[in-house]
């Protein structure tokens, strides 16, 4: 015989029990109005036994009407206590939620954790003026240093859990890895992930920042990356690409990070081949050195340093420019690590070349080199070509960049270089405005067009050499960039039938024209699984380590000389919050997990 289950017997609470036994129903359970105890099983026998055992003597002289009145009074008292408790719970949760929200903002703005106390003092003063009756509610919001630190860690853990959950759905993912040193001379390894799920939706997020207190060999880097991948429960066979800064420890053929990860993938019996890239932006910046015009830049740098290094010279130069009513009022510094600064310095120096010479003459400095026509022609050329290089650099920067689009940008620039070289040999300076200006001002010497055309040829050759890795992946990248223009015969056999179906589908061709290459992949039908996998792998690839460089800038904003003792764990949490893109902390979930915890005013003021 089956065992009886109480919850299947459909027992209901009867209204008459309120006056007869002084019970009411709260959250599905019978609760005594007199003592507050609840009865486990909803049976009249249980209610009557409880009443007769504990309360019968106190209420035996009351008639039915008096019982009804007392039951109603007790019910009203119970409801008011419940409402008070709910209000207190609601206010406590609101205070906790507010502390989470402010902790997130403090982390994003690179403020120290102690800012919480300052913010709270400001809130209290505003409250005293605007709504003094709400003062206690603001006092209940805990914003002490320890609380903010704890909240930041909890927000970071929540984001990591979300990423781990998303990672389980990835059908392909790639990593971007770069290494830098913080203000405490600790090497920091930055790792970002770009994953694609079965719906071909892209997730690009911060994976980890690992401090490296010892050596930074390829083996050391591999150990940290491997540990990070395993912690995130990411399958090695779905790793498609690895983008690095090109350092020997990263790209060494035998003991570099790339080689170690390829060995690991072979151990894991991964069928796919790891595609390793040297950051496109870094490559483009290195190509600029192929011009071999350091002699021009050294004179410019020396001149700028003379003007800017001493306060008196700098003040007098600015006053001099003001007196001459020039368009620009100052000269910027050039910093080697800030690639775009060189173009700005060159442009400003070229525009102020005459004023600079006059100022240096007044200081008794030799300006023979700065007035030399050949030097000015080279300076004008370097100014123009650096401007073009800066333009492509800016095009390659940013988040959510698709590698096929970045490759197209580089390919277009190589074509431009070929055109510029041909035009320069013919002294056609249409795309070199500074050179045009100098050519019109030459008095004796001829414009060195052949020499400068050779410089452009050297730059083009260096672009071809440095981007040979991308040329090897040309067919793969073009397949995502424009699948309707791909030659079917030269494509891999497993894609040929699906490519024919795709190229003959007018509806998909119209969709491609409407949404563009990056978004089109999501509209590939399920009947083209090989094309979808190929698209997912290409979409997951990083073209640059831009995100890593951006993270190092955030790291330097947070870990300054005033916060040099910031722990690795707290720095990691701050950077995860401030660099999050597609993920947002689930604050409501965190508040719910904290349950009935309510911060008292005394605790929050510590």
UniProtKB/TrEMBL annotation:
Coiled coil: 54-81
Protein origin, superkingdom: Eukaryota
Record-linked InterPro entries: RNaseH-like_sf, SPIN-DOC_Znf-C2H2
Organism encoding this protein: Oncorhynchus mykiss
Every SPIN-DOC-like zinc-finger domain range: 14-60
This protein's name: SPIN-DOC-like zinc-finger domain-containing protein
Alphabetic keyword roster: Coiled coil
């Amino acid at each position: 015989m089956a065992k009886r289950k109480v919850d299947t017997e459909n027992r209901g609470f009867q209204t008459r029990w309120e006056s007869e036994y002084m019970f009411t129903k709260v959250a599905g359970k019978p609760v005594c109005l007199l003592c507050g105890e609840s009865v486990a099983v909803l049976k009249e026998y249980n209610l009557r036994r409880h009443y007769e055992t504990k309360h019968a003597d106190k209420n035996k002289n009351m008639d039915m009407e008096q019982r009804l009145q007392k039951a109603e009074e007790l019910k009203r008292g119970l409801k008011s206590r419940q409402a008070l408790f709910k209000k207190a719970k609601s206010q406590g949760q609101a205070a906790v939620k507010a502390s989470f929200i402010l902790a997130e903002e403090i982390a994003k703005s690179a403020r120290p954790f102690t800012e919480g106390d300052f913010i709270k003092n400001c809130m209290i003063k505003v409250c005293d003026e605007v709504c003094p009756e709400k003062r206690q509610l603001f006092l209940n919001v805990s914003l002490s240093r320890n609380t903010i630190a704890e909240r930041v860690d909890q927000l970071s853990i929540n984001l990591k859990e979300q990423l781990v959950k998303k990672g389980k759905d990835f059908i392909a993912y790639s990593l971007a890895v770069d290494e830098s040193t913080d203000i405490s001379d600790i090497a920091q390894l930055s790792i970002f992930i770009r994953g694609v799920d079965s719906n071909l939706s892209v997730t690009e997020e911060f994976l980890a920042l690992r401090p490296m207190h010892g050596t930074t060999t390829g083996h050391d880097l591999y150990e940290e990356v491997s540990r990070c991948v395993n912690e995130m429960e990411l399958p090695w066979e779905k790793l498609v690409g690895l983008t690095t800064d090109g350092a020997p420890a990263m790209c060494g053929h035998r003991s570099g990070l790339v080689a170690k990860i390829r060995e690991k993938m072979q151990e894991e019996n991964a069928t796919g081949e790891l595609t390793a890239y040297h950051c496109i932006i870094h490559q483009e910046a290195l190509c600029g050195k192929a011009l071999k015009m350091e002699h021009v830049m050294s004179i410019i740098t020396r001149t700028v340093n003379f003007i800017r290094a001493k306060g008196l010279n700098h003040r007098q130069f600015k006053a001099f420019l003001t007196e001459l009513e020039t368009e620009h009022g100052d000269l910027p510094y050039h910093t080697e690590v800030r690639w775009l600064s060189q173009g700005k310095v060159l442009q400003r120096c070229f525009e102020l070349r005459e004023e600079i010479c006059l100022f240096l003459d007044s200081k008794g400095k030799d300006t023979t080199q700065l007035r030399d026509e050949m030097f000015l022609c080279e300076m004008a050329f370097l100014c123009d070509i650096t401007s073009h290089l800066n333009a492509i650099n800016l095009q390659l920067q940013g988040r959510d960049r698709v590698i096929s689009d970045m490759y197209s940008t580089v390919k277009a620039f190589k074509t431009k270089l070929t055109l510029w070289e041909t035009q320069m040999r013919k002294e056609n300076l249409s795309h070199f405005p500074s050179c045009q200006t100098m050519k019109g001002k030459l008095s004796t010497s001829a414009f060195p067009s052949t020499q400068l055309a050779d410089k452009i040829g050297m730059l083009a050759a260096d672009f071809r050499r440095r981007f040979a890795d991308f040329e090897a992946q040309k067919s793969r990248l073009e397949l995502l960039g424009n699948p309707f223009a791909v030659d079917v015969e030269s494509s891999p056999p497993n894609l040929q039938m699906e490519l024919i179906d795709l190229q003959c589908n007018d509806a998909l061709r119209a969709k491609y024209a409407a949404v563009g290459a990056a978004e089109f992949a999501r509209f590939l039908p399920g009947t083209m699984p090989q094309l979808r996998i190929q698209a997912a792998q290409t979409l997951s690839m990083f073209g640059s380590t831009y995100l890593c460089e951006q993270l190092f800038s955030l790291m330097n904003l947070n870990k300054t000389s005033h916060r040099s003792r910031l722990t690795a764990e707290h720095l990691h949490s701050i950077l995860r919050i401030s660099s999050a893109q597609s993920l947002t902390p689930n604050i409501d979930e965190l508040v719910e997990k904290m349950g009935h915890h309510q911060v008292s005013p005394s605790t929050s003021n510590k």
